[in-house]
Specification:
By secondary structure, this protein is an alpha+beta fold. The chain is 16% helix and 43% strand. It contains 2 helices and 6 strands. It has a 4-stranded antiparallel β-sheet, with helices on one face. A two-stranded antiparallel sheet has the order 1-2.
């Protein structure tokens, strides 16, 4: 069990993984996602990266990036500063 589960709509990532990536209590993660304080983006690899997916989470100027395979196995993990994201509305 990797803590990342593939589904027809993408992937479900356990709060434990997201919390650890941002130094947060995993119990706080669902509420932060619901309120939009944690946002995410999913990208599908093509060509040489086919079969890989990049899941990126954003919170307070930080990013957590997980590269996973089709089974949800984490192939790479990184965390880095990123500019605050703007509300497109």
């Amino acid at each position: 069990m990797t803590g990342i589960t593939p589904s027809p709509d993408g992937f479900t990532v356990d709060a434990e993984i997201i919390g650890k990536g941002f130094g947060l209590d995993p119990a706080d993660v669902p509420g932060l996602l619901r309120s939009g304080q944690i946002t995410s983006r999913s990208e599908t690899g093509i060509d040489d990266d086919a079969g890989r997916f990049r899941l990126t989470f954003f919170h307070l100027g930080r990013s957590l990036r997980l590269t996973v395979d089709t089974d949800g196995k984490i192939l790479a993990r990184s965390s880095f500063d990123s500019p605050a994201r703007r509300d497109p509305g």
